[in-house]
Design brief:
Distance between the termini: 32 Å
Radius of gyration: 23 Å
Number of helices: 17
Low-confidence stretches: 1-22, 24-40
Number of strands: 18
Largest sheet: 10 strands, mixed
Length: 520
């Protein structure tokens, strides 16, 4: 992310909060702002600046770092910024929203998405589900940069977007060029040129992929540093996890290569991984060759190797985005299908794409043994994620939205539930979608406290008690703007209408990380 964007995200913009719905009350004339009670917190920013104040009153604030429930709190919002949290009086003239019995958490972040449809689909679905930040993990279409810039300018309602470059892969790439355009690099010169190209296109960071050669990969890391960009993405097949972490790649997506690194037979499985051969666009062939290698690694898990590798990731602050939602679909394609309750938010084109991917990329050419092994691999991936938490590896919640049959926004709640099922505590799961993304991206979000940006979710039930309660959304606050229950329901209804319309010229071709695309 460039410095100007960081400055934009960090500053609080003047302007009135937009409030609709909820239980409101005008502040009492006698409630002119006074010193807060003992133990409360408020910024020193002058209340008399003229900026309109919104007060969320009598809420329970969830601290995602400590797991504390702070009851009967007032959250004061001025413009885009939280200016006070505690048992505070409501300033005279503020708009009060009484939320007794409600819970306030930081806005959620999905750190691995591939948006679907046009601006009338993914952006509102994210916000309606409490996602106030997304990391877009590839930009096959420049419209994504347009969305990002318009959201920041306030002319499009949507989450804060941090958008990757086009995928940069080696030669031959796993992607069929008829399905998705990626930048294919063969050598150092091509790698450096690709980095310079995507910076000029507006990328916030570089997205690297599985088939890069060690030479090209090192050149990308070096050139990205020169250009002021960070590198996120897949761990290349020919580069070890410890080398990826030491080189400065800031996040590793998925569990494929990670699982190989903790095998007592690491030398063998790494040699097998380096020997994988594919033709251009043969993602299915890569899966067929990768799965038996993963099976060997899963059955030779080494606690000593895990302590070494996970310790490296922890010390280098290399984030891991497990994308269990994606792995569930890949490992269990015979049991993957649409959720009837959210199917109405997918277009016929998206559904057709998902069916194509399941049949041709995930299910095709599998033998009975591989099918049985992959069902057990899903259980192993859950245990693997539990080990990541046990070793304090920094984990980011990401869904790989764009994978069958993930629905933007809704998929993050699936991911949080899968993380808890894998062994994370509810607090740990919440942290992967709040404070950890904020730290990773350098954003002033991720916590309900003064001087943080007012990206918040109001819930009807306690998410620390049951992670499924993140779905019980009452209202959403994005950049200080309150999306009321009625406004949120209208957003969802509008998406339901939009997906029934013919695809617009501005619609994004589906392009997830693991082959989620089909011929036009």
């Amino acid at each position: 992310m460039n410095s100007s964007r960081r400055q934009f995200l960090a500053q609080s913009a003047a302007g009135a909060a937009v409030v609709a719905g909820g239980s409101f009350a005008a502040a009492s004339p006698a409630s002119a702002f006074t010193a807060p009670q003992s133990g409360t917190r408020i910024t020193a920013r002058a209340i008399a600046s003229g900026t309109r104040i919104t007060a969320l009153t009598d809420v329970t604030v969830i601290d995602v770092v400590t797991g504390r429930r702070n009851k009967h709190q007032t959250v004061l919002i001025s413009g885009e910024e939280i200016i006070g949290v505690g048992r505070l009086p409501v300033p005279r003239g503020a708009t009060e929203i009484r939320l007794s019995g409600k819970f306030v958490i930081p806005g959620l972040a999905d750190m691995h998405v591939h948006s679907l449809g046009d601006e009338h689909v993914s952006p509102p679905l994210y916000l309606a589900n409490g996602l106030t930040t997304v990391r877009e993990m590839a930009a096959p279409d420049p419209v994504l940069y347009d969305w990002r810039d318009r959201i920041e300018a306030g002319t499009l309602l949507g989450p804060r977007m941090v958008v990757a470059s086009q995928i940069i892969d080696g030669d031959p790439t796993l992607w069929d060029p008829n399905l998705l355009h990626v930048l294919v690099v063969k050598d150092e010169a091509g790698a450096r040129a690709a980095v310079r190209q995507v910076k000029g296109e507006g990328a916030d960071f570089i997205k690297v992929y599985s088939r890069l050669s060690p030479t090209a990969y090192r050149a990308i890391l070096d050139e990205a540093k020169k250009q002021g960009l960070t590198v996120h993405g897949h761990a290349p097949d020919q580069v070890s996890i410890k080398q990826v972490s030491a080189a400065g790649q800031r996040s590793i997506e998925h569990i494929h290569s990670l699982a190989l690194s903790v095998s007592s037979r690491e030398a063998d499985v790494r040699r097998m991984q380096r020997a994988i051969t594919v033709k251009t666009g043969d993602y299915n062939g890569w899966f067929r060759q990768m799965h038996p290698i993963e099976w060997i690694a899963a059955n030779t898990y080494s606690s000593a190797r895990a302590a070494d590798v996970f310790g490296t990731l922890r010390r280098n602050r290399t984030r891991v985005t497990p994308t269990l939602t994606m792995h569930h679909a890949l490992d269990l394609p015979d049991f993957t299908g649409p959720d009837p309750s959210t199917l109405k938010y997918l277009s016929e084109d998206s559904i057709g794409t998902f069916e194509y991917v399941i049949d041709t990329l995930y299910k095709a050419n599998r033998g009975a043994e591989e099918i049985a092994h992959q069902q057990q691999m899903w259980e192993y991936r859950q245990r693997f994620v539990r080990e990541l938490f046990d070793h304090d590896v920094p984990v980011l919640a990401g869904t790989d939205t764009g994978t069958p049959y993930s629905v933007p926004g809704f998929a993050l709640h699936d991911e949080l539930e899968l993380l808890v099922a894998a062994g994370a505590s509810t607090r740990q799961a919440l942290a992967t979608a709040t404070i950890e993304p904020a730290r990773f991206l350098g954003m002033h979000t991720g916590a309900v406290e003064p001087r943080k940006l007012a990206d918040l979710v109001v819930l009807d039930a306690d998410p620390l008690q049951d992670i499924r309660n993140t779905r019980q959304i009452h209202s959403v606050i994005t950049r200080g703007r309150v999306i009321s229950p009625a406004a949120r329901q209208k957003m969802l209804a509008d998406v339901e209408t939009a997906v029934k319309q013919p695809a617009s010229a501005a619609a994004i071709a589906t392009g997830g990380c693991c082959g989620t695309s089909r011929p036009a």
